[in-house]
Amino acid sequence: MKKLLIVGMLWPEPTSSAAGSRMLQLIDVFLDWGFEVCFASAAQKTLHSEALSKRKIKETRIKINDASFDQFIENLQPTYVLFDRFIMEEQLGWRVREICPDAITVLDTEDLHFLRKARQEAKKQNINFKPNLLFTESAKREIASILRCDLSLLISEAEMRILMLHFNIKPTQLFYLPFLVNKDEIPQLSNLQSFSNRAHFLSIGNFLHPPNWDQVLYLKEQIWPLIKQELPDAELHIYGAYAKQKVEQLHNTKQGFLVKGRAENALEVIQNAKVLLAPLRFGAGLKGKLLDALLTGTPSITTSIGVEGMPGDLPWAGEIANTPNEIAKQAILLYKLEKRWNKAQRNAIDILEKRFSKNTFIRHFEAKLHYIEDSLAKHRQQHFFGQILQHNQLQSTKYMSLWIEEKNKPR
Fold this sequence. Notes:
Layout: E1 3-8, H1 18-32, E2 36-41, E3 58-61, H2 68-76, E4 80-84, H3 86-99, E5 104-108, H4 113-125, H5 137-148, E6 151-154, H6 157-167, E7 174-176, E8 201-204, H7 210-230, E9 236-239, H8 245-248, E10 257-261, H9 266-271, E11 275-278, H10 288-295, E12 300-302, H11 304-307, E13 318-320, H12 324-336, H13 338-355, H14 358-374, H15 376-382, H16 384-389, H17 396-407
Parallel strand pairs: 1-2, 1-4, 2-3, 4-5, 5-6, 6-7, 8-9, 8-11, 9-10, 11-12, 12-13
Helix pairs in contact: 3-5, 7-12, 10-13
């Protein structure tokens, strides 16, 4: 039986973030293929961590900068090792390659961290984003990780283009695998909540993720006052995991700006809202909140960054706007005009069927992995830069890890 080891930065929390849901989607793919799956992480579990053992997945706590991982992976002998974000590959990839050199290494990028940081820096400096802002220390680290791995999973076609155009990454080392929606998850139009049965606006997102905190401030300070002036009876319900005091202090009943905290079931709260607001000013990857809006037939207002990678050439399930005045204007129109709202809801079904249907991608993904399995030596020769980056003289993370390990030994 083939074995998959997932090295997780965190234990998956599907009720807290899109990253948690995405990880469970990947796990289900490998389980469907008959793999034995082991999830290992050095992180502490929380009350909201998914109970992976219920899915017959082996859970293992590991230590970073500790030789115990070497013994663990030698005993496991995985066919594949999937790193949950580049930081985990950076810390443990060298150990995997030394102990299990024939294990196929896969990096799940989730999103390109250096792209999100570059956009955040542009917003901080109040300047237009330009490609030259991509060439940072963060980019060097993340792209080195991509080059070292046999395959990297990208959730957005836009990020694929950035890697190929600006960094000359070979497309044979990348694989586009967006959110995966089962056929039975795509709703029938007749089963969705109608325009007349919905009320109010909604914003949702994990507050540990900087773009989500920024979007709430943006709504509070610049957008919601414009909407409230036109729609005095409307409310904006703010949901998100890990809402700290700075978030809760924004709650204002008189303004209709209501901070609700964690949504135990995101789909339930979104399906009752008339319009979802996602005015993201920076970020990367695909946005889980917008996928949930599609799944519940909830029209949304978002930005060019928010919608990036979602509809392809299809019309969006709502409106796209990039200034406070335009965002507010489009939100008001969508909230008031039933025909426009119904068209956006129909677009949502079309996007789900044509852009995120699981069956469309899984066959190609399986074929790609089989090809790498059957020609691993050739595949690695074609991507020789990765082997160069594995050379001892360039393995600073390896030697830092060994130094920390030695330092931590009892004297």
